[in-house]
Amino acid sequence: MKTTIDAAGRIIVPKAVRDALRLTAGQQLDMVVADGAMEIRIPVTRMTLVETASGPVAEADVPLPVLTTEVVRDVLESVRR
Prior knowledge:
The chain is of the alpha+beta class. Helices cover 23% and strands 27% of the residues.
């Protein structure tokens, strides 16, 4: 898939890619340059293990979007294809 760089140096991520990776406006991404290639990665979400009365629970160190039934359904459908 091709894209362009605008006059300010911004890369336009096609909507199909944003939708497939569930990228949102303002989301931080990591950029790596190696061997003449550029790779854009979604950073790993850091988690902290917290002990609760029910047992340990992993909590994200940053706010995460709400996990909706629709998101779960979309992911399941994409995996089944």
